[in-house]
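TL;DR need structure tokens for one chain.
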Amino acid sequence: MSVLDPAATAIRLFDAERNLHFFPIRHHSPACALHLREALRAIRPAAVLIEGPVDFEPLITELLAPGVVPPVAMVALPDAAEKGRSGTTYYPICRHSPEFVAIQQATELGATVRFIDLPSRHPAMLSDRRDRQDQPLLPMRETMFDRGAYVEAMCARTGFRDGLALWDGLFEARARGTDWRGFFASVGAYCSALRAASDPDELEADGTLPREAMMRSCIQETIAARSGPIAIITGGFHTPALIDAHTDASRPAGATARSNAWLVRYDFRALDRLNGYGAGLPLPGFYERVWQRLIGTDDAQSTLTEDILVGFRAHLIEKEPALAFSFPTLQSMVEAARRLAELRGLSEPGRTELFDALQSSAIKQEIEVGAHPLLAAFTIYLQGDRLGDLPPGSRLPPLIERTRSEARSLGLSLDDAIPKTRELDIYRKPRHGQTSRFLHAMRLVAPPFAERVKGPDRVYGFRADMLMETWTYAWSPAVEAALIERAGDGETVRDVAAALLIRRLEDLEQEGQRNNAEAAFNLLSIAFDAGIGSAADPLIEAVSDAVGADTQLLRLTNALVIGQALNSRARAMPADAAIKAFADLLPALLDRLARRIAELLPDLAAANADSVGGAIACLAALAEAMADPDPPFATQPLRDALHGLMSAQLDPQLTGAVIALAALVNLIDEAEAGQRLSAALAGAFERPGDAIRTLSGVMALAPQLFVNDSSLITAIDDLFGAVDDQGFLDLLPQLRMAFAELSPQETDKVAAIVAAAHGASEDDFALLQQVPDARVLADHLMLSERLRMQWQADGLATWLEPAP
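>> reply
TL;DR here they are.
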């Protein structure tokens, strides 16, 4: 038997002995849905069995509730025992899904409706083969329709370019003109051939065989419990394995497991196979239009081809005018699509013909398929942007509806799943500040909802002067599933955000970071952004405990910077309850933190060359926190501790940094700072490397002290004048690192002072600004030394003496 001949693999879809009617379908196929509706009306079954997880069966009545607008999805969340496993399982339903049509029709006929697949969280259902972890986890898989030896051979025989075009040409484009028996006989033969060409080992590995055992078991149970016709609706690939009455029908282990299942809104973008969805047909917006035409709900006077192409042109004119095409081009497209359909033996153009007509009529240059922006725009247009809906009072956790209500009250659009952009004036408009806090909270609770594209880094000060935030957001199935998963933590977004932050505190403790003041203040900053307010009281207590127990000075000083930024934000933003809660709590906490730092600051005196980098980072953080002219903490303990450091014997680099910090916080004036640094440099005259390290310490905190004090510049110049050429080359890397903190203008100022001290003219200074790199400079010095030695050998030593 050749697997290339569907007629040779035809199967009997009616089992008269057991009164079973088998209906092989492809998920989300309008043609299958249309003929299935007619078939069920004709046979009037007593029971309708559908391929779907058995634990989703309680959701069937909810699916038919008034006000439910597909697309929707039944979802199952992992329970506590499944940590580390793949995430939420989705079973999407749209208006043209054969399963949805079957449920509607069975209910009208008074038939029993059952799902007969394994539970959604059964291991066999989780053995998916997603390319990326962000793709949906689905109990329905149909990749076998699109690849394999049989599909390739059929495409070669018929001229269709791929498996999707093959299915469209064989079935979707011929939805009209045949009765349901002939249609399902053709689908059955096609699917039987697909099955015959499949690898049995692969079917065992991907969970197909245990799933089919479960389906056979459910069929047997229904036969025993019901009299009358039974309709069995499954993916066509499974149908051949269910027909044989003698095949084992024992239920697999674990097939009675229950799950945390809910009905949620879904959208066409998530349903589109091009986004990683593994079943059904691509571009659901197109097939929704096909379905409306098939059932006669679309009263348009034009053909489907005209309707789509005219609509697409209008969409481009409004949204992407640079891509819009002329009316004559539109007419050419419609005609090209019709002629292609005739050439391929189709009653009307399908998805493939529309794309081919668009490419041949509107795109002149040679392109790869899918590479032109017009084709990309057409793909998105046919994908559709419909977002399903559920009526008020649906069985959903309060968290979801309260979240949606709050989002709408803040002016966020949830009508579709298209990403939108929102700019927020967070400091000057109270409503914008509330929206920002809601979006920050949603980043914690349901990360897929929102992403901040631009705005100030309010922890570490990056672009801290920005007044605006820019966000993108979109309500999607992943958002709804994330909220369901978090529903046990509270009924509002802020309650859940607070619970998550408390959990992060617990994680810090488990990781041995309970006393990490910096990490605790980071969590407090997140709580502030999310507007948690009084719910942050446990966080404040935990942060206070960390401050008292942390012994690492760098973490404490970084925490002070974060806390100082928090306090500044609380004072700058329009006050509300959430802001006031932080404004009242922070000063006492920051005062305790500052006093703790003052206690530990003398420990820096023990820093050596290996650890001095961390010590200077502490002083830099302290300088940033104390830059506030009206800090919310007592500064005197810090000033006293700093004064003590100034009299201690310190590492040269730390000496420079301490003097710089003292000048920055006005503990000493710049004149005294210059004197102290000149003395430190003079003391290191015999050790030029130490002098440069002292200079590096100054540069790390306050380079302006060096730039503005010509005596310091002269001291460094004298230092280098006392070393030979090789000594200068040895010190050059350190000097370059020290001067890296200077701006180009500051570097020029220092160079001008040095050049003037050596009597250089303005023209000489212009040449000096063209500084060679270290390698070139070393080469030049070596050449100078060779010339000097040669002149001496030639009796020309007097040439080397300076002119009188």
